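> forwarded from #structure-qc
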């Protein structure tokens, strides 16, 4: 009998915790669902968004609003926050004939501090984009902090587009271009 059965757990929702095959013995017999990720365990269903399409639509929205110089602060690697959202960003630029500036695509950890570092790196290229597409709210908050700390106005000088639409929406919505 697994720990969850001993505790009389009726079910487990995995949100933000990557699932691996090593978890199957630990959760055997307990109903589970993964949220926000694709489950790699066949017996565990998942609910998630299409990150590529959502990022594509976000960047397309920026383009439709007149932006042609769009940077991206992305998660690292091939995760949904890194690879999938970057793929949507790149496809939107490609489909509209906009060249991607490699120095305007910066990988970042998922924190405000790293979002600030990434925006600093973009600014250090010598020219600023008109918009920055950020893979997460925390990255967007960091980018906005950097811009505001350096005398720039958001969104008048640089629009910041965040992806997740988490708790930051209430506090920051007047500064953000749009959320998904």
């Amino acid at each position: 009998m697994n720990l969850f059965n001993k505790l009389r757990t009726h079910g487990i929702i995995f949100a933000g915790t990557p699932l691996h095959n090593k978890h199957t013995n630990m959760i055997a017999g307990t109903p589970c669902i993964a949220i926000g990720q694709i489950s790699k365990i066949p017996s565990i269903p998942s609910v998630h968004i299409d990150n590529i399409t959502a990022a594509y639509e976000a960047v397309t929205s920026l383009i439709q609003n007149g932006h042609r110089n769009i940077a991206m602060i992305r998660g690292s690697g091939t995760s949904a926050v890194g690879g999938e959202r970057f793929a949507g960003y790149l496809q939107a630029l490609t489909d509209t004939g906009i060249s991607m500036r490699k120095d305007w695509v910066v990988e970042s950890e998922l924190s405000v501090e790293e979002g600030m570092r990434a925006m600093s790196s973009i600014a250090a290229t010598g020219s600023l984009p008109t918009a920055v597409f950020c893979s997460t709210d925390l990255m967007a908050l960091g980018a906005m902090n950097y811009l505001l700390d350096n005398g720039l106005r958001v969104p008048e000088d640089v629009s910041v587009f965040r992806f997740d639409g988490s708790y930051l929406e209430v506090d920051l919505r007047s500064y953000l271009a749009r959320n998904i």
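QC bot note: The beta strands are 12-15, 32-35, 46-47, 70-75, 105-108, 131-134, 159-161. The radius of gyration is 19 Å.
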